[in-house]
């Protein structure tokens, strides 16, 4: 892969990403910043983060192929890669039918988009693909440098590695709550999972494949569902979940740190850096 991701990174939604946040991640030694949701096609946020930092790789997680034409994101990629060689991984994905009115032929649309990136000179080693199900995981292995599963478990990581084989980078997202009180941890972890993910077809289908019943997935998710998708507890508990992903075949784990509303994220990041890096 043209971009080297460290073992532990941080995932954060684009509206919450600032240059100052990225600089702190860089200072703490995290292996990458994954910018969530679909940023505009000019990718100015990616560029500003790279300009502000010295070594931190950045990935988009993801650019939505329905929202940004391939030629537009390719032009942005080349502009950024020229300024910051080896530090930007272009992650793309199909999004969700609930969010896109023209959600037709999703697999063929992904293939066409990757074909256009080929034509625009964005090589396989420069790009990654959001992937959950077997068909798109195989596409990620065939046509990109990395698969980016989101809202998954170590068991999914094991299955994904089997499908991808040994050569494709497997970079998984893992939600965490640094809170030792179980009830409080569940209260923090459940809402970001329930809304919107437990109402989105792609994620529900993946969770069913992992053995969760419709009853467990209803009404905001059972405790078992939330505990499977969100690592909760102290830094050692988070480290144990991260180790499960690595044992299952992950190359990179991107932590999405969930906190109570208006709680400062930086203390949690420093605790994680001390324990995991």
TrEMBL record:
Any one Gene Ontology molecular-function term assigned to this protein's record: oxidoreductase activity, acting on paired donors, with incorporation or reduction of molecular oxygen
Cleavable signal peptide: none
Gene3D superfamilies given in the database record: Luciferase-like domain (3.20.20.30)
Key words, A-Z: Monooxygenase, Oxidoreductase
Record-linked InterPro entries: Lucif-like_OxRdatse_MSMEG_4141, Luciferase-like_sf
NCBIfam families linked: F420_MSMEG_4141
Name used for this protein in its record: Luciferase-like monooxygenase
Species: Actinoalloteichus hoggarensis
Lineage: Bacteria, Bacillati, Actinomycetota, Actinomycetes, Pseudonocardiales
